[in-house]
Write a structure and sequence with these properties.
By secondary structure, the protein is mainly α. It has a single domain, classed as Orthogonal Bundle (Arc Repressor Mutant, subunit A). It is built from five helices and two strands, in the order αααββαα. A two-stranded antiparallel sheet has the order 1-2.
Length: 96
């Protein structure tokens, strides 16, 4: 079972919801567009797009298919959700 991880200061519940949806605890990790993420959460598509961009900057998600704007969790995103990477460590990644 996925443990609830602390949020970095730059994160909001939107970011956690996006990451947890891509993680797909019920089975295999998902690859999704911002529109599909919005359809499966309580967030609007524009909000998801803005947060996906931020998650990309922090290397928590990556493109599965950039030309079609399909995203997946990155290795770092998986480490964060698994509790192997603290929110504090994400604070230091601002310039990466």
């Amino acid at each position: 079972m996925l443990a609830r991880t602390d949020l970095a200061s730059w994160m909001t519940p939107v970011d956690r919801d996006i990451l947890e949806l891509l993680w797909n605890e019920a089975g295999q990790e998902l690859v999704l567009t911002p529109g599909l993420i919005a359809e499966n959460t309580d967030w609007k598509r524009q909000t998801v797009r803005e947060h996906i961009s931020l998650l990309l900057e922090y290397d928590l998600v990556e493109y599965h298919d950039e030309s079609r704007a399909i995203y997946r969790l990155s290795k770092k995103g998986r480490q964060y959700l698994a509790g192997d990477l603290d929110a504090e460590e994400l604070e230091n990644d601002e310039d990466s």
